[in-house]
Structure formats: C-alpha cells, structure tokens
UniProtKB/TrEMBL annotation:
Domain (TATA-binding protein interacting (TIP20)): residue spans on this chain: 1052-1208
Family assignment from sequence similarity: Belongs to the CAND family.
Pfam families reported in the protein's UniProt record: TIP120 (PF08623), TPR_CAND1 (PF25782)
Top-rank taxon, per record: Eukaryota
Protein name: TATA-binding protein interacting (TIP20) domain-containing protein
Spans annotated as Disordered: 320-349
Keywords, sorted A to Z: Repeat, Ubl conjugation pathway
Organism for this UniProt entry: Aphanomyces invadans
GO BP, one annotated term: SCF complex assembly
Length: 1230
C-alpha cells in the first residue's frame, strides 16, 4: 500500500513539471496506474482529483486530452463524494471559467457521464441537473448555453430516471428556451426535449405534446421560425418516443402533412423549409414503424405525400435525355470503370435531396409494416418509383432502389402457397400484387439497365444488382425475354476492378442461371466462361468462392440434363476451360474453407454432368476428391460430390477409387457426427445402386455390418438411410443376403425396429421394402415367425400396430398358400386364450385385410364381433378388434360394410363406439370411389347416434360425418348446418359443430368450403351451452389454422369480439370433498380455448385482429390459470413482431404479472410433476420477456428495465434467459 501511494505521489509531482512532455507522460502513467486493481485512500483521492482537474487548464492540448481520458477512469475508482466534487467543479468552470477552455471542461464532464457507474451517477445526477438548469436560465452566453444543453441531454439519456422530480422544472425551462432567437439554442433545446420525452411519465409527456400542439395552433404564421421549431421538436419526440405518441396521432399527422406542403410550392423551396420537411418525414417514419394500429387511418395520406416528395427536386430539370445518357455507352476503356462520382450531378448548396431521402424512407417503412397497401402501391405509385431510378443524387438513388427492393421482398412473402406452406391461404389481393408486378417487369429492367452501365458509380450499380436479385426471386424464371438486354452490363460488372460489384454480379448471374431455362444463356457462354474463369483466379476469397459456385451453374447450362447426348460441338469447347478453372482450386491446400467446399462441389457436378468429355482427367480428379474425403475439414463436401458422381447417368469409371471410398465411408459410420453419417450413408446408397455389383463381397458385407449398427429407433432418419443402403446392397449383390453381416446384425436390428412405437413415415416404408425383398431371398416362413411369434409382453399399442404393418408387408409379397397359412394362424390366435397374442393377431388381420381380399380365405365377421363382448376381452383387444373390422372392410367393402351398418342400426349403445371406430377406418380409406357408393346408406346410421349420451360416441359420429363431408359435401353439409340451429337439441348441435372441425382439413379451395358458411360457428360461439361453445372454439381454431381465407371477412367485426367476451367467462364453484373443499372454474376451458384461437389468428390473419382492444385481455391472461398464462406468453411473443407499438404502450401494465410469474417458487411439499409445471410456466414467461426485449426502445421503460435487472441478478432466471436467447438466435440463423 505504501509503495502504491509513493508511486502516485511521485506521478502527481511530475504533473506540475515545466516540461509539457513530462506532464503528459505523468498523466498517462497515472491513467495506467488507476486502471490497475489498487486501493487509494481519501487524502490521495482528493490530491489526484485536484491534479487531474488542474491538467484541464494546461496550455498543452495533448495534456488536456490525456487529462480528460484520466477523468473517465478516475470516476470509477474514487468515492461518490469525490465524483460529486469533480462534477461540481467542472460545472463551475463551464459557467464561470475561461472561455477558451470551456470546450475541454464540457468534454470532461461528458466523459464522466459516460464512464461513471450507474449507482454513483444516480447519486450525483440531481445536483448536477440543478447546476445545469442554472446555467441554462441565468447565462445567455452562446457557448455556455450550448454546452449546458448538450450536457443536460447526455445526463437525461443516461440518468434521467434518477431525478424524475426535476422533470417538470426541466420541461418548463426548456419550453421557454424554445423561444430563443438563436437557432443553435433552439436546436439543442429540441434535442434535450427529445431526451426528456424518453424518461418522462406518460402524463408529463402528454402535457408536453399538448403544449407544443397548442403553440403551433396559436402561431401567427406557418412560415415563422417559431412554428418550424415547434414542428421540429414534435418530430424529434416522434423519433425518440414514437410509440408513446399514439394517442396524439390524429392531431400530429395532419399537422405534419400540412407543414410538408406541396412540392410545387415555390415559397417553400429553401433550406429552412427543406429542414422542416425532412423533420416531418422523419417523424412520420417513426410513427409508421412504431404506432402500427394508431397510424392506420393516416397511412394512405402519408404514402401519397411521401411519394410526391420522393421526386421533389426544384433545382434540376429531368428530361428525356437523362434516360439515355448510358444507353449507347460502349464502356470505353475498361480501366476507367467504377470511378465513383462519374455521371453524378452535385450541388453542394441544394439540400432538397434530404427531403427526397426522408420521404423514401417513409415509403419503405409503409411497405415493411403495411402489407395490405401493397396493391395500392403497385397500382398507383410503382411507375413513379421506377421513374426515380434516374435520380441525380447518388445517396437518394440508392434509396430508391432500396425501396423497390423492399417492395419486391414484400411481394415474395405474398406469393401463392408452395408445397412447404400449403396451409397458408391464397388471397386475391396477393395474386393481384404479383400480376401488377408481372406487367411492370419490362419497365423496371429497362430503367434499371440504364443505371447499370460502367459509367455509373459502383454504389449505384451494386444497388441495382441487389434490386434485380429480388426481382428474379419474385419472377421465378420469367425474366427470359429481357436477359439479352441485361446481361451485357452484368458482364461489364464482372470485369470491373471493384470487388463488391464483381461479387454482386456473380450472385445475380448465378441466380438467373439457376432459375431460368438454359437456352437463354447458351449463346452467351463464349463471354461468360472466360469471365468466370478469370474471377476464379481473384485474390478475394469471397469472389473466388462464388465464382466457383457459378461454374456449377454454368455446367448445368452447358448440359441441362446429364442424360442428354450427344453434346453439340460448340458446347464441348467449354468443358475444358471450366475444368481448368476448377482444378487449381481443387488441388490447393492453403485456401479458404468456402473455396475448398465450392471447388469440390462444382467439380463433382462437372464430372457428373460432363464427365463423358473428361475421361482422360478422371484418373487425376477422382483421387483428389478421395483424398479430400480423408480430410476432416473437406470430407462432407467431398462425400457429397462422390454421391453426385455416383448418381450420374453417364456411368463414369470409378474403379480406381471405388473400393477405397466405400471402405472409408464404412468407417465413418462409427463417427459421432450425425451429419457425417447421414452424408456417408446417402453416398453409399448411390454407390451401391450404381456400382454395387463391381465391389467384392467381403467389402460389401463389412459395410453392411457397419451400417446395420445405425438401424434403431434412436435416430429414424439414419435408420431410413441404413435400411435403404442394405436393401440396395442386397439388390446389387444377392450373396450379401446370406452373409452373417445381414443375418446377425442388419436383420435382427430391423426386426427390433419393427416393434418400436416410434416407427413411422419414411422409416416404416423403408422397413417394408427391406423385409419385403427378404421374403424372396429367405422365404416367408422364417421372417413371419420372427415378426409374429416373438413374445412382446411390454409392447405398447403403437408398437404392436407397427409389427402388424410389417407382417402385412411381407404377407403381400408371399405366395397365396403362405397368405392362407398366415390368415388361418391369425384366426386361430384371435379365438385363443392368450390375450397378448389375440391383440397382435387382430392388428395383423386388419393390416392384412386392408390390402388383400380375404373372402377366399374365410369369413371372420362373427369372430371379430365376438371380441366386442363384455367380459370376454380387455379394452385393448376390443379396440384392436374394431380396427381389424374396419381395416378388413377396406379391402372387402361389399361384404363387411353392410355388416357394420347393420350392427350400428340394431345396437342400442354397448358396442356403438367400437363399431363407429371401425366405420371411421373405412371412411379414412383413400379409395373414395368405392366409399361414395355407400354414403346414402351410412348417413342415416350416423344421424341416429347424434343424440348419444356418451361424448366419445358423439365425437366419433362427428369425425365420421366430417370424413363423409370431405367425400360428398353436397349431401352431408346442408344437413350438418341444419343441425346447428338453435331448435336442435344440445347434443345434436355439439355433434354438428364438431363435425365442421373435421371438414376444415380440406384444401382452401376444396369442395366442402363451398357448402359452408361462418354463421353456424359464430352462433355456436354464443350458444347457451358451455359444451357447444367449447366445441365451437375448437372448430374455429381449426378453421383459423387451415381456412384463414374462409374466416377473414368475419374476423374483425364478428369473431374477435366474441373471443374477447369468452375471455371474461369465469364460472367458479366449490366442490365439497368432505375433509376439504376444492374450487373448480368451469369457464377455464373456454378461456383457454379463446386465447388459443387468438394465438392462431395472429399466425394466419394478424392484420384482422384489433390488438389494442385485446391488450387488456392479454394482461388478464397473464394473471390467469397456468394454462391461460402459457397461451398469453405465446401471444405476447408474437405481438412483439405483429404490433410492437402496442406492446410498448402497455409495457408498464405487463411488467407486474410477468414479475409475479417469474417470482413463483415451488413449495417443499409439492410433487416433482408440480415443480416441473411451475418451471415450465416460468420458462414460458421468460420466452415472452426475451421477445419483448428484442423490441427497440423496450429498455427505455423504467419498469421494464427494473424487471430485466432483477432477472439478471437472479441466477436461476438469468441462466434460463440466456439459454432462451441463444435458442432464439440459433433459430433465426436457421
């Protein structure tokens, strides 16, 4: 400690040295010492503070600068009292010190505000604020006013919440200062008010805005500096607290639009008016982005004004000549390309470009937040935006291309549903937007092409190429007629010396080649191939990597289909140059990972597509790819390339690498990497299919043995690939089927997999194919016995069902006599006493009968129906019997369906549920033509049981009616709709509404939807019976998920208000259980259903939900039962993207219920399941918290900031939140 003090004392002495270099070095050393973990006493603290403050008066600028830096470090080391003294001293110096040093004092104080700890800063902020206000009020000096206002702004930004008692005084003083005659003062006051608005309470902010608006209305002249200042202040507030001004938008927006005026008003064509307009547009942009609901009535007016001002350029006349400046440019000297600033008009005194740029940003904000206006934008304003491609100011021109790119990107989101999203509705508006775009493609490309010439600046050309990529994404291969005009400028960009431009050109050209027909590019290959080969030699790794990818696209242009033979002589000439461009990059070791991967992938594609013209190069290339398989970094790409080559129809000679590759891939089955095993198996399948017969039996058997280890239910995808590989190997080399590798490894694992409850989908199909093929090799009896007779006492219903499916699959491949033998065994076991074997036999009989007509084998109707008898069988056997009866009926409809219907007609209720289950299996068949013949016979039987007392029976009737409705909607749905009427019984209404739920599974334009209306569902949501309401909620949820377009016209006005009413239903009653009483809420299930419906609507029809009306119900839901809370958390997370402004407006109210949930702690007496349930609710709340935290400006709210601080200080919550944030980050990247 003593040594440390001595060191500081020595440095302090040197800070007063006459030599400025000595003083500088002493202060610098003092900074370094303070940064160490040292303790300094109170006396030394005062001496150091005094010395550093004195250095601020030093004559040397260097010493002053290092002293300012030292202040920032010092305030983190000394006590609060010293920090307060330093701040007070600096305030005095700013107010009363030397004028020439005032800037240094100001910088020093700002440095302290930046570096001081939160706790210390909070303690000194009130005093500091008072001193600054004195400076603002009592001092008229220009520099004093300027510095004190700047410092107060910084103070409010960082510590504004800590001196809330001073906010009213600050506001009153600042409002007076807005009337100052000096523009620089008014500008700083405006910034300071913007910072105050962030930390002010809602009431104070409301008062501030009302005062500003009142002053604007009382102003004598709209052109006065006073009015402009007021408008700029409101604009600043809109940018800092946009979402909190929602209640004032009905006044502010018309005001802003009025002060924007008309672009043709010559009296406003000056810098002052331009600044005012820019401020108005910036404010409007903030409102559009942050006040989604409140701004809705004004968006069309804002859009109209913004588009008008996007072409506001009073000092420049655009003529037709501007459109042609680059039309006939031959490019000149290539070395002259990309000289920034060429062909750009510039006028340093003209600030109108700022107005145009601000207006364009408003348009971009509307495009990003108002998809419902896209059609309007295309219809009325797209031509104007395209016309602005000729904008003279480069920064504005780039923004124009950015706005059009945003428009195209939004249109991609509205493209008709693809196979990946067939559940999404295709709305007429979406189609109209795409059609509008199609009609303007020629205009867009013609205008963009004029800005793509070599005389245009690099930034503009990059923006054009970026926009054209978005256009190509939307048009999906329909740009063919325009490519001949477009590609010459793209080729010039490929020759440019600017790397960014080259990269954009490569990306665009590759996108064109992969989405358009090859014939459009074949005539350009003489130009493309040399250019790409040259780019593959570039120095920047990104260009090289993308050029190598482009070569892969060129290969598919040269020969779109590998089977296309022969290749024309003019195309053959390009094969060798492409190979020569790839080979050096394939051979190199010390290159970037992306280059390695792309070189391998493109070489594999080149060989697979054009390998018949590279036969002499195969001995060189294939060993190189094989070598890359051994490398841990490149092996995935190399394995994929080998797979592509193996699948090539050219049947290339792989003899010199085949055995080594298969051996290497077999060894990879033991690696930990799942991706590696998956890729290796995929390539092995290709090699076994195309070259399996050429590989020796021992190697194949060893590979099968390794692959067999992956056949298990722990990873079904790998199991699918492994089963497929073993099957292809056996097909290529039948001798493998007799080897121990298959008999002792692959087959036992496959049989064990057959008894897995997890088995499904592609894995099940692969297992069917594998076992079916083995029937012809090993015979039926052995496989049948292994599958059917093996005891499985602990197997679940799903596991036994999967075994039955496999038994049916091998029965289908067996001869008739073997099928008869199996059938007899099923019948024998069904009539036996072993319950477990009866269970299996019924499933097997059902699956066998589903695909085979068993009439010739015998009649099993009585046998199966006998299993329904009470007391003779377990419930599992009864349900298996129902499945067997329905499944056998599918393959033997004419015999078994009348039996089912007869039994249903005469059965009084004991076996109705089982018979309906059998009927459901029949109606689920894909053989709809056969079922249609029996619809008229089935319908009366189902109608008879609509009134059943058992809910399970009614639910089964509803499901059967729903399946019938999908087959014959014209006959079924009118009667179902009639059953929904109020005069029908409660049970009938429940059944009819539930039936509609199953009808929603059809496609959006399916036949059933033409016979349905929304009204029955709406009526059911208001039904007096709670059970019918619950059924209506489930039906509505299904409709919202599958048939959004069907509901859309009724959601806002009819359905959402009913859902909100349902959220208020609370039907609590007390159940007396003797020793204690239990409270039951019969309304919980309805509330949970209503929140679930709204959650679905936010996914499918977010624009139809009145989020502001729902906000109070969301807050209620966050305080409800755990199930409702979980739904509310999901909804809150979605609202952060759908309506972030509404979330921010209600953030104060949201904090309390979220905080209460996060503070829940399980009791010591609670069981583990209850503890886990509480933890699940807490995790759900944290997901909502994480989503809200991603909203811009959320951390400005003091209550939210306090909640986040409490979470971070609680170890268990902070760990969970960090994991959730990482999970969200990963999902976004994916």
């Amino acid at each position: 400690m003593k040594d440390t003090s001595s060191a500081f004392v020595a440095l302090l002495e040197k800070t007063t040295d006459f030599d400025k270099d000595e003083r500088y070095m002493a202060t610098s050393d003092l900074c370094n010492e303070l940064q160490k973990d040292v303790e300094i006493g109170p006396d030394l603290e005062r001496k150091i503070c005094a010395a550093v403050l004195k250095q601020l008066d030093d004559k040397s600028n260097d010493v002053q600068s290092i002293a300012v830096k030292c202040l920032g470090i010092l305030v983190t080391k000394v006590q609060e009292k010293q920090v307060s003294d330093i701040c007070e001293k600096l305030c005095d110096l700013i107010l009363n010190g030397k004028q020439e040093l005032r800037d240094i004092y100001s910088i020093g104080l700002k440095t302290i505000l930046t570096d001081v700890s939160t706790k210390t800063g909070a303690s000194v902020s009130t005093t500091l604020c008072g001193r600054l206000l004195i400076g603002i009020v009592q001092y008229s000096d220009q520099s004093v006013k300027s510095d004190t206002l700047d410092i107060l702004t910084e103070l409010l930004k960082r510590f504004g919440h800590d001196f809330s008692g001073e906010h009213v005084s600050i506001m009153d003083i600042l409002l007076k200062e807005l009337n100052d005659d000096r523009a620089f003062v008014r500008k700083r006051v405006t910034s300071c008010l913007g910072a105050l608005g962030v930390v002010a309470t809602d009431a104070l902010l409301h008062r501030l805005v009302e005062h500003l608006l009142a002053d604007v209305k009382q102003a004598s002249s709209s052109d006065s500096s006073e009015v402009r200042t007021l408008i700029q202040t409101i604009g600043t507030l809109s940018r800092t607290v946009g979402h909190r001004l929602g209640r004032h938008l009905s006044t502010i927006v018309p005001l802003f639009l009025t002060f924007c005026g008309s672009p043709d008003d010559e009296s406003m064509q000056n810098d002052t008016a331009n600044e005012l307009r820019e401020n108005c547009f910036q404010g409007l942009e903030a409102f559009v982005t942050r006040c989604h609901t409140e701004i809705a009535p004004h968006t069309t007016d804002i859009l109209s004004v913004a588009i008008a001002f996007s072409k506001y350029d009073p000092n420049y006349m655009y003529g037709d000549d501007d459109d042609d400046t680059m039309d006939n440019d031959d490019g000149g000297d290539d070395d002259a390309y990309s000289d920034d600033g060429d062909n750009d008009y510039s006028d340093d005194d003209d600030a109108s470009w700022k107005v145009r740029r601000a207006a364009l940003r408003v348009v971009s904000a509307i495009i990003g937040t108002r998809q419902e206006l896209l059609e309007l934008i295309y219809n009325q304003y797209s031509e104007t935006l395209i016309g602005r491609f000729k904008e003279r100011e480069e920064s504005v021109r780039i923004d124009v291309f950015g706005v059009v790119s945003d428009l195209l990107r939004a249109t991609v989101l509205l493209q008709p549903a693809t196979d990946k999203s067939v559940k999404r509705p295709v709305l007429t508006r979406q189609r109209s937007c795409v059609d509008q775009l199609h009609s303007r493609v020629g205009t867009i490309i013609a205008a963009a092409n004029k800005q793509l010439g070599p005389k245009t600046s690099v930034s503009t050309r990059c923006a054009v190429l970026s926009m054209l990529r978005e256009l190509a994404n939307v048009e999906e291969g329909r740009l063919g007629p325009y490519l001949d005009a477009l590609v010459p400028n793209v080729f010039k960009a490929l020759q440019d010396r600017n790397s960014s431009l080259k990269l954009d050109a490569i990306l665009f050209l590759r996108l064109l080649m992969t989405t358009h027909d090859a014939s459009h590019f074949q005539k350009h290959l003489p130009t493309i191939v040399p250019l790409v080969a040259e780019n593959a030699k570039e120095d920047w790794y990104k260009i090289v990597a993308k050029a190598l990818q482009l070569i892969g696209a060129i290969v598919q242009v040269v020969r779109p289909s590998p089977a296309m033979t022969p290749l024309s002589p003019n195309l053959v000439t390009f094969v060798q140059p492409l190979y020569n461009a790839l080979l050096p990059r394939l051979q190199a070791y010390d290159i970037d990972q992306e280059i390695k991967d792309n070189a391998i992938a493109s070489m594999g594609l080149l060989l697979a597509t054009l390998g018949d013209h590279l036969t002499s190069e195969l001995p060189v290339v294939l060993p190189l790819i094989q070598e890359r398989v051994q490398n841990e970094i490149t092996r995935i790409a190399a394995i994929k390339a080998l797979g592509i080559i193996a699948r090539s129809p050219l049947k290339l000679d792989l003899t010199n690498v085949l055995v080594d590759v298969i051996t290497t891939l077999a060894q990879m089955m033991r690696q930990q990497s799942r991706t590696l095993k998956q890729t290796a198996l995929d390539t092995l399948i290709a090699l076994a299919t195309s070259r399996g017969a050429e590989v020796s039996l021992p190697i194949l058997c060893d590979t099968v043995r390794e692959a067999a280890g992956l056949i298990s239910d722990s990873d079904l995808q790998l199991s699918t690939l492994a089963l497929t590989f073993v099957l292809r190997t056996v097909q290529a080399s039948p001798s493998v089927a007799q080897d121990a590798a298959l008999l002792t490894k692959a087959l036992p694992n496959a049989l064990a997999l057959a008894a897995s409850a997890l088995l499904q989908g592609q894995t099940l199909d692969a297992l069917f194919a594998f076992l079916g093929h083995l029937v012809s090799v090993h015979g039926f009896d052995q496989l049948f016995n292994e599958l059917y007779t093996t005891p499985r006492p602990d197997a679940t219903k799903h596991a036994l069902h999967n075994v039955a499916r496999c038994v049916a699959a091998i029965c289908a491949k067996a001869p008739v006599q073997s099928q008869k033998k199996a059938f007899d065994l099923f019948v024998q076991d069904i009539g036996g006493t072993d319950v477990s074997q009866t269970h299996v036999a019924l499933f097997c009989l059902g699956e066998f009968g589903r695909h085979t007509n068993v009439a010739s084998f015998g009649d099993v109707r009585a046998l199966i129906l006998g299993c329904f008898q009470t007391g003779k069988a377990s419930e599992e056997v009864k349900h298996a019997a129902a499945f067997a009866l329905g499944s056998v009926c599918v393959g033997n409809m004419s015999v078994y369906l009348p039996t089912i219907l007869d039994e249903l007609s005469k059965d009084s209720g004991v076996h109705v549920y089982l018979l309906l289950s059998a009927l459901k299996e029949v109606l689920s068949t894909k053989n709809t033509d056969v079922v249609n013949q029996y619809v008229s016979a089935v319908l009366p039987v189902l109608n008879k049981h609509c009134e059943s007392d058992e809910e399970g029976v009614r639910n089964m009737v509803a499901e059967c009616l729903g399946k019938l409705a999908l087959l014959n909607p014209g006959l079924i749905l009118p009667s179902v709709t009639q059953f929904c009427n109020a005069n029908a019984s409660v049970k009938t209404r429940w059944t009819a509404v539930t039936c509609m739920k199953y009808c929603m599974a059809c496609s959006p334009d399916g036949e059933p939807m033409r016979h349905l209306t929304v009204q029955p569902i709406v009526n059911a949501l208001q039904d007096e019976n709670m059970g019918v309401r619950r059924a209506a909620l489930l039906t509505f949820n299904s409709a919202a998920h599958h048939q959004a377009a069907f509901l859309k016209p009724h959601v806002r006005d009819s359905i959402v208000p009913l859902l909100l009413q349902t959220m208020d239903i609370k039907l609590e009653r007390v159940v007396d259980l003797g020793p204690f009483k239990h409270k039951v809420d019969d309304g919980l299930v309805l509330r949970k259903g209503a929140y679930g419906c709204l959650d679905t609507l936010l996914d499918t029809l977010p624009t139809e939900v009145d989020v502001n009306a729902f906000a109070p119900y969301l807050i209620k839901g966050l305080q409800d039962h755990d199930d409702v809370q979980t739904s509310s958390h999901l909804i809150l997370a979605k609202l952060t993207t759908v309506a972030p402004g509404t979330v921010l407006n209600n953030l104060d109210a949201l904090c309390a219920p979220l905080d209460k949930t996060l503070n829940r702690r399980p009791k010591d007496t609670e069981v583990s399941s209850e503890v886990e349930r509480i933890n699940d609710v807490i995790r759900s709340a944290l997901r909502a918290v994480d989503a809200v935290s991603s909203i811009r400006d959320a951390d400005v709210n003091p209550k939210w900031k306090a909640l986040m601080d409490r979470i971070k200080k609680t170890e268990s919550l902070s760990v969970m939140l960090e994991a959730i944030s990482i999970e969200r980050g990963v999902s976004l990247e994916v």
